[in-house]
Amino acid sequence: MRVLVVEDEQTLARYLAQGLRERAMSVDVAHDGDTALDKLITDCYDVVVLDRDLPGVHGDEVCRRIIADGGRARVLMLTAMADVGDRVTGLRLGADDYLGKPFDFEELVARLEALGRRSQPARPPVLRHDDIALDPAQRQVSRAGRLVPLSNKEFGVLAALLAAGGAVVSTEELLRTVWDEHADPFTNAVRMTMHRLRAKLGEPSVIDTLPGVGYRLTAPAC
């Protein structure tokens, strides 16, 4: 899941970005409304964590433009104001959810995961392929009943392949959804991550490489 954190408190923004990346999310950060709108033009996000009281373009206006553009991004609005009227205003602007500061990080993660599911076609709570099972909520992967410890990037790559259901996933798409805006398009990070993932999952291999095209899961065993 790709997330844009729009928060002018830079310490809080760094904390959120680091914590969400540790949950295998791809995270970009903006500290004002103008920068957020620029990023929304050039990149696609599943969820935008949007502080309401932003410098430059106000968070309310950023929310209006996200909704007006008709994209798939869901909006989780943050505010230091706890008044019911402020929450109602934010929701009426088109925000999908609302969280007042201070907030519990685990609650933020749970709300983001729920919004991320709403931004995509419905999928089962546990993703499966052949004898592989990936549980996003528990962040666990198993093969033939054996737990397979994966890094955040390995977990994200496998989740993307499982979500694709056998369709080809390009290197560019993996960089967009598993890494972030700072990923070098010419890097070999995807190839190296795929190599480690294959090794950890073991034989027989369940990931096909299509040179110059991307990756996909192998056809399930009969």
TrEMBL record:
Annotated Response regulatory domain residues: 2-116
DNA-binding region: 124-219
Keywords from the UniProt entry: DNA-binding, Phosphoprotein
Residues recorded with modification 4-aspartylphosphate: D51
Family matches, as Pfam families: Response_reg, Trans_reg_C
InterPro entries the record matches: CheY-like_superfamily (IPR011006), OmpR/PhoB-type_DNA-bd (IPR001867), Sig_transdc_resp-reg_receiver (IPR001789), WalR-like (IPR039420), WH-like_DNA-bd_sf (IPR036388)
Keyword Phosphoprotein: yes
A GO CC annotation given for this chain: cytosol
GO biological process, one term: regulation of DNA-templated transcription
A molecular function (GO) term: phosphorelay response regulator activity
Domain OmpR/PhoB-type positions: 124-219
Protein name, per record: Two-component system response regulator
Organism the protein comes from: Actinoplanes awajinensis subsp. mycoplanecinus
